[in-house]
């Protein structure tokens, strides 16, 4: 992990910084990365994204909850997204985090909540993806995912795999046996060198390796990266190997590399925009700043323009 990223993540944990940014951050620049604080606002944003030929994944922001009531509220928020998608006619699916659904409270309770969400995805003929969090929660996340794939089928639920973890190749191989839909990302959490590649080049190389591995196994793959070098490398490889268009999509974050998103659409690629919303946007926002120094410069510019 770079020194700049460590510094941002450490600073983000400061109470004074948290209070200040939570109060003013949407005005200062967080709105670039967060589509809105309410679902109604966000659906209007999704309509505009769809109008540019882009698909969407909606994520109601929030992470580890401290009680069952909060977890049930987060579960209901995910269920409400499916209803809003159907009512508005937007083209979107849903992403959730298990700690938001009570994973740190009780695994079985979390599974019950995730079961309700997956059942709703199937009822609405839609799709939900379980986001991956930090490494201590990785195996239990995979276990819950496997339980729900066995119950509801791979058409309605997918998972995220992070290329900065040493174990990810084995996870992709194991999950490939179920022919599941995986979103491959580099990873955004602070992890020790015992479990994660410390060097960017190794993370990047493993990223390309995992995407190719899952596609070669005939499994649907969401290529989630803003790295244009990696994107171009994989575009050439996809053509060379004649990978069917219906087996993959590119994914990027809302507010990041907007022109590249639309360029890929013009080139005929399927592109999905991960679009977060909600009042609990601060942890997500700080990870976006930590990932790329240019994002911090954008926020500072917004601050001085106010």
UniProtKB/TrEMBL annotation:
Binds 1 FAD per subunit. FAD binds at residues 132, 162, 186-188, 200, 225-226. Pfam families: Pro_dh (PF01619). Its EC number is 1.5.5.2. Keywords: FAD, Flavoprotein, Nucleotide-binding, Oxidoreductase, Proline metabolism. Residues 43-299 form the Proline dehydrogenase domain. SUPFAM superfamilies: FAD-linked oxidoreductase (SSF51730). It catalyses: L-proline + a quinone = (S)-1-pyrroline-5-carboxylate + a quinol + H(+). The keyword Coiled coil does not apply. Pathway: Amino-acid degradation; L-proline degradation into L-glutamate; L-glutamate from L-proline: step 1/2. GO terms for biological process: L-proline catabolic process to L-glutamate. Transmembrane segments: none annotated. Substrate binds at residues 97, 287-288. GO terms for molecular function: nucleotide binding; proline dehydrogenase activity. Its cofactor is FAD. PANTHER family: PROLINE DEHYDROGENASE 1, MITOCHONDRIAL, PROLINE OXIDASE. This is proline dehydrogenase.
């Amino acid at each position: 992990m770079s020194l700049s990223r460590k510094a941002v993540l450490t600073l983000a944990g400061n109470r004074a910084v948290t209070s200040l940014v939570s109060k003013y951050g949407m005005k200062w620049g967080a709105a670039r990365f967060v589509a809105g604080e309410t679902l109604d606002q966000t659906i209007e944003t999704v309509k505009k994204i769809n109008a540019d030929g882009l698909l969407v994944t909606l994520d109601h922001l929030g992470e580890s909850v401290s009680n069952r009531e909060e977890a049930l509220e987060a579960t209901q928020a995910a269920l409400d997204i499916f209803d809003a998608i159907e009512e508005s006619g937007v083209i979107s699916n849903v992403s959730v985090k298990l700690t938001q659904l009570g994973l740190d409270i009780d695994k079985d309770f979390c599974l019950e909540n995730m079961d309700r969400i997956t059942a709703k995805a199937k009822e609405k003929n839609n799709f939900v993806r379980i986001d991956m969090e930090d490494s201590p929660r990785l195996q239990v996340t995979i276990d819950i995912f496997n339980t729900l794939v066995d119950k509801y089928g791979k058409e309605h639920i997918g998972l995220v795999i992070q290329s900065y973890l040493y174990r990810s190749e084995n996870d992709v191989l194991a999950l490939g046996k179920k022919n599941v839909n995986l979103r491959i990302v580099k990873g955004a959490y602070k992890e020790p060198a015992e479990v994660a590649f410390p060097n960017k080049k190794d993370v990047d190389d493993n990223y390309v390796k995992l995407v190719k591995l899952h596609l070669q196994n005939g499994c649907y793959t969401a290529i989630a990266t803003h790295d244009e070098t990696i994107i171009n490398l994989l575009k050439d490889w996809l053509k060379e190997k004649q990978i069917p268009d219906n087996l993959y999509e590119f994914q990027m974050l809302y507010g990041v590399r907007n022109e590249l998103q639309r360029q890929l659409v013009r080139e005929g690629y399927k592109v999905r925009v991960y679009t977060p919303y909600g009042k609990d946007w601060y942890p997500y926002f700080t990870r976006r700043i930590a990932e790329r120094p240019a994002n911090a410069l954008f926020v500072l510019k917004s601050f001085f323009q106010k």
